[in-house]
């Protein structure tokens, strides 16, 4: 009990420099002690006020602002760190524990990721297989479609070739003109709703009427 | 009720937000999720991630106000979550074709605080929050800071009827002692 008491005192004295007699230094005043009032010769002295140049005051302001910001952030950081350490101590968590915990979580996650990766590979393979089949079907369809198209075109060409025999060319244009003059065809006639032709060409009718009028 | 408009406004109710189960570890500073929307048949693997973003992300944000939550849309073939730790570590969680519930349970297991820790923290918070408590770490150091309570004996002596000196000794004994 007594020993504990003594040890307490000794630790305090060794850590707290204020209690150590060796460290105590009395203040010696060279001129006026603190407790004396202003000297009579200085009572009405008005100290001259220092006026900083504008630029310099701005610069001082900037430097001070920077300093305050930096010190504040540093202070906050340190406070936060200390608080965190305290909290960790309360929870009995050391950095090693935290690292171990992280590794444990990482391992769990790794196995989960691997499971998903396996499933995904399977799924992608399946999808690829389906896609391959679909592409094959598409190709087949395309070939078929092209074949059909080709047939249609060939038939058209045949038809055109056949029709080309009756085309009017430079050689037979005179004959064609003669034939056309010999057999005039007029398409201006009436039709009923079913498309049946009704009567003669209008021009013919009109020419007939005109002829009749001119004869008498 | 005002503001109860839009899709599933229940997501904005306090009760819903409070009932979130994911409380991330303190070391996690950023929570990012990549997923796709609106790409038709390829979206099946993203359905869980979409549901997670739609239903659970508000709760997660509410429960973890100090964590930055980022969502990236239509920038990935498969959905995944990436958490960034304070010390630069990262953890990548694949959530390809997983449902919302599966994702939540896995997140709680991997990046969430354990139930034990949560219980301890609630206890600590209660201690700090309760205005009736006093002492170190509380809002007031001593009961005597409240008006109408007895001041600390070190500041101002206790009333005589509370002091052993006056109630444990007999009157004449006291007089002798003082002499």
TrEMBL record, chain A:
Alphabetized, the UniProt keywords read: Coiled coil, Mitochondrion, Ribonucleoprotein, Ribosomal protein, Transit peptide
InterPro entries tied to this protein: Ribosomal_mS26 (IPR026140)
Question: Which coarse location class applies to the principal site listed for this UniProt protein?
Answer: mitochondrion
**What's a Pfam family in this record?**
MRP-S26
Q: Where in the cell is it found?
A: Mitochondrion
Q: Which residues form a coiled coil?
A: 136-165
- What range does the record give for the signal peptide? none
* Gene Ontology cellular-component annotations: mitochondrial small ribosomal subunit
Protein family (similarity comment): Belongs to the mitochondrion-specific ribosomal protein mS26 family.
The protein depicted here goes by the name Small ribosomal subunit protein mS26
Upper lineage is: Eukaryota, Metazoa, Ecdysozoa, Arthropoda, Hexapoda
TrEMBL record, chain B:
InterPro entries registered for this protein in UniProt:
Ribosomal_mL43/mS25/NADH_DH, Ribosomal_mS25/mL61, Thioredoxin-like_sf
Q: Where in the cell is it found?
A: Mitochondrion
Q: Which UniProt keywords apply?
A: Mitochondrion, Ribonucleoprotein, Ribosomal protein
**What does UniProt give as GO cellular component?**
mitochondrion; ribonucleoprotein complex; ribosome
Q: Which GO terms describe its molecular function?
A: structural constituent of ribosome
Q: Does the keyword Mitochondrion apply?
A: yes
- Domain (Ribosomal protein/NADH dehydrogenase): residue spans on this chain: 42-114
A matching Pfam family: L51_S25_CI-B8
Highest taxon of the lineage: Eukaryota
Q: Which SUPFAM superfamilies match?
A: Thioredoxin-like (SSF52833)
Q: Which PANTHER family match?
A: MITOCHONDRIAL RIBOSOMAL PROTEIN S25, SMALL RIBOSOMAL SUBUNIT PROTEIN MS25
- Family per UniProt? Belongs to the mitochondrion-specific ribosomal protein mS25 family.
Protein name from the UniProt record: Small ribosomal subunit protein mS25
Q: Which organism is it from?
A: Polypedilum vanderplanki
């Amino acid at each position: 009990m007594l020993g504990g008491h003594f040890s307490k005192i000794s630790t305090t004295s060794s850590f707290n420099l204020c209690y150590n007699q060796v460290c105590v230094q009395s203040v010696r005043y060279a001129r006026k002690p603190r407790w004396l009032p202003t000297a009579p010769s200085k009572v009405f002295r008005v100290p001259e006020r220092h006026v900083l140049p504008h630029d310099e005051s701005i610069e001082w302001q900037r430097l001070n602002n920077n300093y305050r910001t930096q010190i504040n952030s540093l202070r906050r950081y340190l406070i936060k760190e200390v608080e965190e350490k305290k909290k960790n101590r309360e929870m009995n968590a050391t950095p090693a524990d935290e690292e171990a915990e992280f590794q444990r979580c990482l391992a769990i996650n790794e196995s989960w990721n691997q499971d998903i990766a396996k499933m995904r590979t399977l799924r992608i393979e399946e999808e690829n297989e389906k896609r391959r089949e679909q592409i094959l079907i598409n190709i087949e369809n395309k070939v078929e479609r092209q074949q059909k198209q080709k047939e249609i075109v060939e038939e058209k060409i045949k038809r055109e070739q056949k029709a080309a025999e009756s085309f009017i060319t430079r050689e037979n244009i005179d004959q064609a003109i003669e034939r056309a003059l010999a057999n005039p065809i007029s398409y201006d006639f009436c039709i009923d709703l079913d498309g049946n032709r009704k009567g003669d060409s209008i021009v013919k009718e009109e020419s007939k009427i005109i002829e009749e009028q001119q004869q008498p | 009720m005002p503001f109860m408009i839009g899709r599933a406004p229940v997501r904005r109710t306090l009760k819903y937000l409070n009932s979130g189960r994911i409380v991330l570890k303190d070391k996690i500073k950023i929570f990012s999720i990549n997923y796709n929307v609106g790409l038709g048949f390829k979206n099946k693997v993203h359905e869980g991630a979409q549901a997670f973003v739609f239903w659970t992300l508000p709760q997660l944000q509410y429960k973890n106000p100090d964590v930055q939550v980022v969502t990236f849309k239509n920038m990935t073939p498969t959905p995944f979550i990436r958490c960034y730790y304070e010390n630069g570590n990262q953890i990548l969680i694949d959530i390809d074709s997983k449902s919302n519930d599966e994702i939540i349970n896995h997140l709680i297991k991997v990046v969430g605080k354990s139930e034990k820790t949560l219980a301890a923290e609630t206890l600590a918070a209660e201690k700090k929050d309760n205005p009736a408590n006093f002492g170190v770490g509380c809002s007031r150091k001593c009961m005597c800071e409240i008006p109408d309570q007895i001041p600390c004996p070190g500041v101002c002596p206790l009333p005589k009827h509370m002091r052993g000196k006056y109630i444990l000794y007999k009157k004449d004994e006291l007089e002798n002692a003082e002499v």
